[in-house]
């Protein structure tokens, strides 16, 4: 007796309401919004950290970077269940015959495969980055940035080819199919839960219900750190440490005692990190604007900040004029009224409004006026 193999399925064999064009279009619309928000806020974050000459990033409102980077991570989290739902809704297209019917169809299919691969790469590496886990050899920032452009390019091609289908599906009468509506409700609910259990990293009032929040108020002096003093190799600060300030009128150096004797500014400012977590704290220190005046520079000058740390990608940073002219850009000496712990940058650190945490240089050794 000859064994008869089952016939491979065809697109028409999939009759679930979840595979309807209207479902695919509605989920795709929200996925496009999530991807768009994630892409734009990601570009902003990249530009703040690696600014081109034409780029301007304000120091106010003080929570601006906190909001944009929080939206970046939250929209990325929301995109995960939306992407899975979208893929499930179009799954039968894999069995459509013929496999390729025209050049336009080949372009559309090719863009889908590129989009799926790039989207999964972005979302997976983004999740690992939020958890500060890097099980790969490439530099995350460059790869994430480059693949984001590939993903958006493929998405735009896909939308352009499918626009008539999308428009037609979204403008039809609202469906009364209960199964179809149930699938959409499940998708929205899953997306909402995914956001809720992770958004506490960015939204403080959600921390009590965000079970998977990657950061909280736990850490040295009640504030999280990404890179501690041991990892940075700054465990013993010399007793004769002095801050060096270089400007148009020469060089001056100040001990920590001299810095503490200067007029102090206290402000509540957030630490907002690229991984999406953020938290406010009360910082006390000397405005950078007053320090550079000591060497003949005016607020609004560009200043390079160097750290005692000798390795690491962020051992130095550049404060643009917008930040050096802001009176809340501080060389901080105290955190919540206490001397900075080594993990938070003792003997002093930069804390500036609307600035990524990686650029809030710790263990500062030198300020140099560049322009």
TrEMBL record:
Keyword Thylakoid: no
Keywords: Membrane, Transmembrane, Transmembrane helix
InterPro entries on file: Mopterin_OxRdtase_euk, OxRdtase_Mopterin-bd_dom, OxRdtase_Mopterin-bd_sf
Keyword Signal carried by entry: no
Sequence intervals crossing the membrane: 27-49, 69-91, 112-131, 137-161, 182-206
Domain of life: Bacteria
Domain Oxidoreductase molybdopterin-binding: 238-370
Pfam families for this protein: Oxidored_molyb
Record PANTHER family: BLL0505 PROTEIN (PTHR43032:SF2), PROTEIN-METHIONINE-SULFOXIDE REDUCTASE (PTHR43032)
Name of this protein: Oxidoreductase molybdopterin-binding domain-containing protein
Organism: Kutzneria viridogrisea
Upper lineage: Bacteria, Bacillati, Actinomycetota, Actinomycetes, Pseudonocardiales
């Amino acid at each position: 007796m000859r064994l008869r193999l089952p016939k491979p399925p065809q697109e028409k064999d999939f009759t679930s309401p979840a595979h309807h064009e209207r479902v695919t279009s509605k989920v795709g619309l929200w996925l496009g919004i999530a991807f768009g928000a994630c892409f734009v806020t990601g570009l902003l974050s990249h530009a703040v950290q690696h600014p081109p000459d034409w780029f301007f990033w304000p120091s106010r409102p003080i929570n601006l970077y906190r909001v944009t980077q929080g939206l970046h991570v939250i929209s990325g989290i929301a995109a995960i269940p939306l992407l899975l739902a979208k893929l499930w809704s179009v799954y039968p297209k894999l069995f459509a015959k013929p496999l390729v019917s025209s050049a336009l169809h080949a372009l559309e299919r090719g863009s889908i495969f590129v989009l799926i691969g790039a989207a999964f790469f972005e979302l997976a590496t983004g999740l690992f980055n939020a958890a500060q886990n890097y099980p790969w050899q490439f530099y995350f920032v460059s790869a994430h940035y480059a693949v984001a452009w590939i993903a958006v390019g493929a998405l735009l091609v896909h939308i352009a080819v499918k626009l008539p289908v999308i428009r037609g599906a979204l403008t039809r009468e609202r469906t009364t199919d209960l199964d179809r509506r149930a699938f959409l409700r499940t998708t929205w609910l899953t997306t909402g839960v995914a956001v809720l259990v992770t958004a506490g990293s960015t939204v403080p009032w959600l921390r009590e219900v965000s079970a998977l929040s990657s950061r909280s108020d736990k850490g040295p002096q009640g504030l999280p750190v990404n890179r501690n003093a041991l990892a940075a190799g700054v465990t013993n600060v010399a007793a004769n440490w002095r801050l060096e300030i270089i400007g148009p009128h020469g060089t001056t150096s100040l001990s920590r005692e001299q810095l503490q004797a200067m007029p102090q500014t206290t402000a509540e400012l957030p630490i907002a990190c690229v991984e999406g977590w953020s938290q406010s704290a009360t910082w006390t220190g000397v405005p950078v604007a007053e320090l550079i005046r000591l060497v003949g520079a005016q607020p609004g000058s560009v200043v390079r900040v160097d750290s005692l740390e000798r390795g690491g990608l962020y051992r130095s940073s550049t404060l643009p004029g917008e930040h050096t002219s802001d009176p809340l850009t501080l060389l901080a000496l105290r955190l919540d009224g206490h001397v900075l712990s080594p993990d938070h940058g003792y003997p002093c650190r930069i804390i500036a409004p609307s600035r990524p945490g990686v650029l809030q240089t710790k263990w500062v050794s030198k300020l140099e006026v560049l322009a």
